[in-house]
Amino acid sequence: MGKRFITGMAVVFALLLCVQPVMAADTIKIGLMAPLTGAWASEGQDMKQIVDLLAEELNAKGGLLGKKVEIISEDDGGDPKTAALAAQRLSNSGVVAVIGTYGSSVTEASQAIYDEAKIMQIANGSTAIRLSEKGLKNFLRTCPRDDEQGNVAAKTVVGMGFKNIAILHDNTSYAKGLADEAKGLLEKQPVKIVFYDALTPGERDYNTILTKIKAAKPDVVLFTGYYPEAGLLLRQKMEMGWNVPFIGGDATNNPDLVKIAGAKAAEGYYFLSPPVPQDLDTKAAKDFMSAFKKKYNAEPGSVWAVLAGDGFNAVAAAIKGSGSTETAKMVAYLKTQLKDLPGLTGNISFDDKGDRVGDLYRVYRVDASGKFVLQP
Amino acid sequence: MKNKRWIVYAAFSLVLLTSPAVLNRYWIDVLNVVGLYVMLSLSLNIILGHCGMFHMGHAAFYAVGAYTTAILNTVYAIPVLWLMPLSGLLAGLFALVIARPIIHLRGDYLLIVTIGFVEIVRIALINNVFGITGGANGIFGIDRPTIFGMKISTPGQFFYLIWFFVAVTIYLLRKLEHSRFGRALNYIREDDVAAAGSGIDISHYKLIAFVIGAVWAGFCGTLFAAKMTIIAPESFNFWESVLLFMIVLLGGRGSIAGVILGTFLVIGLPELFRQFATARMLVFGAVMIIMMIFRPEGILPPPPRTYRLDRTAEPEEAA
Amino acid sequence: MEFFFQQLTNGLAVGGIYALIALGYTMVYGVLKLINFAHGDLFMIGAYLGLTLLTALGLADYLSPFCVIALLAVMVLILVAILGVVLERVAYRPLRQAHRLSAVVSALGASIFFQNIVMLIYGAKFQVYPHDLMPRTVVHIFGMPVPLIRILILLASVVMMVALYTFIQRTKVGTAIRAAAIDQGAARLMGINVDRVIALVFVIGPALGGAAGLMVGIYYGQINFTMGWIYGLKAFTAAILGGIGNIPGAMVGGLMLGLIEAFAAAYLSVAWKDAFAFCVLILILIVRPTGLLGERVAEKV
Predict the structure, then answer these.
(1) A297 in the same domain as A199
(2) Which residue of A has its CA nearest to C122?
(3) Which of A110, A260, A316, C299 sits a CA distance of 20 to 30 A from B84?
(4) Which chain A residues are closer than 8 Å to C125 by Cβ?
(5) pLDDT at A25
(6) Which among C99, C286, C289 has CB closest to B296?
(7) Which residue of A8, A37, A92 is in closest CB contact with B26?
């Protein structure tokens, strides 16, 4: 038994030693932390595609500071514990900055580790307000915050003249945050919230919930969750023969929404989102679109993956602008000097807390052919 | 034979204890996670391994411990490590309350009930039960532990804190294994009717095993909360319980050394397979099947209990 | 009152699918005493195979919808059944003499393996069945609109359950399966080829799961690689609720679980419905430790 134990342990340790990363200093390493496996694997794999593409383009143009850029991606599995390990791993791999990740609680688990390692982190899909309120110097994000979106959501709902509002979320940290923000703001308005509850994400049948919401007789349903559930809700709502407008948050900005719901059911669905490159006629957005189509023969997926691309653009701008890969200099450059960097989702600037500046949110409507049309 | 085994264990401990000197922060942190899971798996081992109760909801007790620590620390600023006994106690109390009516359930029915409990706990946490769990956001800003005024924050420091508790756990569990109580649990596992016939109060012993396991999981919860500084319901889901369940079975039910080795494999392998990127869990799944086929009783099943004929000697485990 | 009946049909629709998957769990459990955690993933693979065959063969272009679905069903059933037999051969048979829980770990490994291989082949994105596959007919029952496809799903579940029950109770092979379920050694002595019986069980169980996967794909449209885990857990709950190893029990358990969830969501809280369902399960097991229709198993002596 002792022998077996020691052989087993020896094998484990031998394996541990084999995979120690080899350090090389002739490239600038940029980390990408993304959910490459697990429930959000689709987002994470999109993030990797986009960042890889941008890095390739940058290298074709000669890289940064005369060096090539190398992307080191780590899987955070969409779960805080794995993310903490991924963050340790990235902090050790000699990266100068990290892009990512998706999911506020996942990002939060990695924040302290990057902070202690003094590595700049630019999150792309972590909208919880508190992330940038902790006074972490080296944390920035390209996505807007929940309070901003909640504000826009409340304004949109009231502006459209709805009186009885149903709010549905999915009990994820993001959707609940947004729903609470919107609820708080709407309660101050002359409207009534007739329904407030959460569905369980990952199920297939939401008829029970729809039947229940219908009985509350709302004029509009505000759904703050993600696109797979939104698609099913729209589809099952149509099958019920119920004609109520739906408004969604930015997590439903994904072309798969229409695929799941079907164009007929999705027609007339409104959602709020930062603009995707498809809708921008800036040069940066157009170039990116054609390059992406050429390389992957598909349209980029969700806006979050695109925001990871903007994270990369910000890192590149910081290195170029500050002429250095030192964290303090890069962060200082991004927070104070960088103004209106042309990004994939419009111009990028950061405020003192590291949050993205500007009114990012637009209202989209799905038209009869299933296209997302930017509303004026 | 006996000496040889101790040499192996001592060598292993020595390698482990000096490893932070040569490993980088990432691998130290992997060892920290492994340490936490060793403790958790050993606590499950009492219930599943020694007593043979099919328990797939261990994360529920772990969650109670972690949340107790997190809430009391963030609200009342009580130092984290002081909360360890209380976290264990509450987890144990919780186990006592829920296990009492279900302890008589047989194998797979007990399995689903424990799954049910872990899901109920997770749903309650996510729905911000009593308004104190922070919902899906969880609780953040938990203090780092301090020992004699020294703040524990780097992976290296946590390494020694966690593995110290692992060592204590192993020591106590060895005592338990060789006690009258430990033998009674094994008897229940092997043949509960015969055990009852020999005068063992089965329900009573099962309940105690359940509570001890839960208390220990509560302790782990404190360490976990201190290490992560943020805890969220998704850290305590059903899958977490399944993972612990697999560790005990892969390692060898009722074998301390086996469970430790099992933890190294189940937690360590996916980290080693990182180079396979998206395929790493695929490889992991296949490895699990293969390991089970080649060692169906686990990698290091406990040796059969043997006793010296010489009655004056203490009962000894043979290698 | 309309609300009540609406929720009743909602619950039955969900429960019908739980029941169908639970049948597969129960079949395997009945004979092998094995909780086949990979069963939910076979269900998921059924949904994916259905979609692949549908798009690859282009059946929908020249056949009527019902012919397409019937053909698809046959193909998916055969393919998933083959996969089931292979799974048994590779992952379970070597463990038949081992402790029961060893096979459970092997099943969990298979579950992880299946999920990830589907993710690698099809990608992590949601896949979607064509929307016009089934005519969206709505029939009125007592003046209440009910989509025809829901009735068909429920009907299909009931038909399969009855067919399976008759097969097990009335045929010679069915008797062999029951014999193997009670005592494999004795069955072997009576000249029953237990290996063949187990292989057969792994044809029927996974095939039923695959059929359920296809139905979910056609009805709900959206499928992804993690769906097996969620449905699998629900179906396992249903099987236990009804008394695992018992075929009518799986049906009763599935429908009941669907109804409990629907009414908990309707009259209590949507967010708490799963917790409530588990509470009911635990209460039922406290009162009836082997499920609703489970037989009282004699204590082993």
Answers:
(1) no
(2) A42
(3) A110
(4) 42, 256, 301
(5) 57
(6) C99
(7) A92
Measured torsion, CA atoms of residues A324, A330, A332, A336, in degrees rounded to the nearest 10: 100
Show the domain range for A62: 13-144+282-348
Pairing of strands A372-374, A362-366: antiparallel
Boundaries of every domain in chain C: 2-287
* Residue C281 distance to chain B (closest CA, Å): 8
Minimal-distance CA residue of chain B relative to C33: B108
Residue of C140, C216, C220 to mutate, interface with A, max A Cβ within 10 Å: C220
Q: What distance in Å separates the CA atoms of residue B244 and residue B44, rounded to the nearest whole number?
A: 7
Chain A nearest-CA residue for B281 = A37
**One CATH from 1.10.3470, 1.10.287, 3.40.50, 2.60.40 for C2-287:** 1.10.3470
pLDDT digits (tens, 9 = 90+) for A279-324: 787 888 888 888 888 888 888 877 888 899 999 999 999 998 888 8
Question: Which of B246, B289, B292 is closest, CB to CB, to C113?
Answer: B289
The larger pLDDT score, comparing residue B304 to residue A346, is at: A346
pLDDT digits (tens, 9 = 90+) for B81-128: 889 999 999 999 999 999 988 888 878 888 889 999 999 999 899 888
DSSP A47-92: HHHHHHHHHHHHHHTT-BTTBEEEEEEEE-TTSHHHHHHHHHHHHT
How far CA C272 is from CA of B184, C11, C287, in Å, comes to: 40, 16, 23
Residue from C125, C149, C272 whose CB has the most chain A CBs within 10 Å, to mutate: C125
Q: Judge if A257 and A236 occupy the same domain.
A: yes
Whether residue A241 and residue C266 make contact (CB cut-off 8 A), yes or no, is no
**C265 contacts A208? CB cut-off 8 A:** yes
Report how many domains make up chain A: 2
Is position A8 within any domain? no
Q: What percent of chain B has pLDDT over 70?
A: 94
Chains touching chain A at 3 or more Cβ pairs under 8 angstroms?
B, C
Nearest to C145 among A37, A209, A241 (CB): A241
Report if residue A30 sits inside a domain.
Answer: yes
ipTM of the complex model: 0.85
State how far residue B249 is from chain C, nearest Cα, in angstroms.
7
Structure token pair of residue A312: 């990369």
| A160 pLDDT higher than 70 | yes
Q: State chain A's mean pLDDT as an integer.
A: 85
Q: Are B170 and B163 in contact (CB under 8 A)?
A: no
Task: Give the closest residue to C220 by CA, choosing from C122, C128, C154, C119.
Answer: C128
Residue A120's beta-bridge partner residues?
A97
Give domain status of residue A362, yes or no: no
